[in-house]
Amino acid sequence: MSESPSAKHRVVVVGAGFGGLFAARELRSAAVSVTLINGTTYHLFEPLLYQVATGILSEGEVAPPIREIFRRRRNLDVQLGWVTDVDVEGKAVLVSAPDGRERRVPYDSLVVAAGARNSYFGNDGFAEHAPSLKNIDDALELRGRIFHAFEMADLEEDPEARRRWLTFVIIGAGPTGVELAGQIAELAHRALKGQYRHADLSQTRVILLDAADRVLPAFDAPLSVRAERQLTRMGVDVRLNTRVVDVDEGGVKMDTGEGGERIEAYTKIWAAGVAAPTLATRIAEATGAGTDRAGRIRVNPDLTVPGHPEIFVVGDMAALDLPGVAQVAMQGGRYAAKVIQRRVAGRPAKRPFHYFDKGNMATIGRFSAVANVGKLHFSGLLGWLMWLGVHLFYLIGFKNKVTTLLHWVVSFLGRGRAERISTVQQIHARNALNGTPRAT
Amino acid sequence: MSESPSAKHRVVVVGAGFGGLFAARELRSAAVSVTLINGTTYHLFEPLLYQVATGILSEGEVAPPIREIFRRRRNLDVQLGWVTDVDVEGKAVLVSAPDGRERRVPYDSLVVAAGARNSYFGNDGFAEHAPSLKNIDDALELRGRIFHAFEMADLEEDPEARRRWLTFVIIGAGPTGVELAGQIAELAHRALKGQYRHADLSQTRVILLDAADRVLPAFDAPLSVRAERQLTRMGVDVRLNTRVVDVDEGGVKMDTGEGGERIEAYTKIWAAGVAAPTLATRIAEATGAGTDRAGRIRVNPDLTVPGHPEIFVVGDMAALDLPGVAQVAMQGGRYAAKVIQRRVAGRPAKRPFHYFDKGNMATIGRFSAVANVGKLHFSGLLGWLMWLGVHLFYLIGFKNKVTTLLHWVVSFLGRGRAERISTVQQIHARNALNGTPRAT
Q1: B361 within 8 A of B386, measured Cβ to Cβ
Q2: Domain with CATH 3.50.50.100 in chain B
């Protein structure tokens, strides 16, 4: 690389999700040095996380190591750590390393792309009994719980308790909730069928709850109807206009009926909402940008923070009227990187960020998905084939594309669920005298 | 299945390792009912566990679900639980379920194949600082520690501490120790090369210690020499005639030199010894069979316990003058199953168990392995190709054979380590103020 003065322009990217990854990628041949800071060593392909939780894919297939993605990049430094704060005046991020030490990483341009975290809407006590699905730890925890429930149902002799083990409640009917509900129904009614001698898996109940009046509210209404019909056909009990008011070890309580209805279930999954991470509040306060109701940072049309043209916010952390999907983050990351490159090259700034909506899709079961592309609707097998193609295309790494496709053949044409390990630690964590599960 | 009286003969198999799995398989068309009890839901292909610890294979690839292996079997019941004791008079095993409840499972014939556990030779305090590699939990823990060490070396600025992060000590130079040492050296000097900006991975030290005077003592001496030479060529520091006397957070102490030498290293792995599980002692006491020095149950030449022709002990739990390898367990399990089948059919007992030694092999690095087949010795690429073929042949499931081969192509022809996730929980577990790792 030539030693021009601009070669020293330091870009710090916070987060290696879709936003951060695409920003860092776009800067591949820029005359800048890039530092990519992330709390884990991998990029997470979040749209397929539910397949890790249900035994289809291995965690490595949806979480390629950041260092392998960028192995040929000379102008990029990957650092493991959590960004706890930004010194906007001193132009440095504060990073907490895994050994607890704090350090400052200075920047000339900053791309903030730390994504979203799960939100229990103030009921953080629900988390122990109804884990959510935002990262690999969550997926492995849910995988352990889901497969363990079938094992316990097979061991359990009391019909009441067995029924509780065979009842799965998913709270939230967005894409994650719908995909989890569909996959758990597939497990019970197809993939694991015939593998248990004592429990009758056809008795499995998968209940999908949402306070809204339709599933997949981000999709056009006709697709919600089709998705719901397909879920029902697969044996999922969809309950709309239903708010969960309490979650405990043995079940959930809802606001429906006289004085609230209760479902007895050992396995509950929270897929109901996300919120901005604490870092968003910090940056909004330090810059005076302010946040929207979801805690996301208010940004200019070029994704910069008001008064701080050197700070870009992309993806779920930015208060834009856009859905929290991968495409928004990818395009935002790429846009920010392009603006930085132009500035470093002394060229005029680009026009404002414009999101190009490539569409929205969610799988329901094998051979069935819904896709919303502009005004076009796709569902059933056609939707599923689109889903397949798009996800294979965006998956990172040739190896992951090949093994993922193979796992899909095994799981969808066959019935195998190859990646369904519960660790001994997980099995022991549920070792309670009363037979109910405990959070790890 | 015909309802002959013998259809009710109940066979209980304890353990789904190689011994239990092959016993259960052999009984596939026998007029018996089989109950297979295991502490996890998977069969573990232990010889490839080191590849999970070093990021080559996913845990699902070496640990297929028992229920999927036997999905077409009607005369077999899989139960999750730990066998804590055997009531030899009442002919029942006592099983502790994951929910803590105890139950009795009656048998007419019993096949005990619970394998071996790691032994720290009385120094159980070493376990926290030097985990061993016997199960999936161990492999995931080691995977977290090994890859985390390179990350921390990259973050660490103090040269002394960085050196500690880049030093790996493996205690025990049997196949597991040799394979781990070889793979960690490959990681540092080939696979991860160029992926770190601050740490110089060529400074990585991999130290393989053993109290014996050669590596791979179960192999013929010339192969030990070749293996050691190959390890040295790969950058492994092999130290023989060296006993470890202490292990702490920051390193190990050895009995060499004046007053003992010390190696500073954050990552230590124990691959030094195995012992029989507690269940062996229980059975030996209850039956009066007695144990050998390693705690293994003394058995008759037909693998039954003296005075109890209905109890078979196979694999690592049996006190035979045989190595603790998969083949011994497989052949023992198959033999026990055949004897049971003959008895049920009213045919005379077979001749005593005879182990057919198909040979012994261990990989050292890519394209390099040693194999001992009868009096023949193979090493280098030829040994490695044999190793490849044999392991693919014995891996269970078509899907696992294909994805494993693909992972090997990626890792050995390429340099990818696709399955190297550290969970956030693992990263946090090492979050100590003094920068030293803590056991999870």
Answers
A1: yes
A2: 126-274+366-429
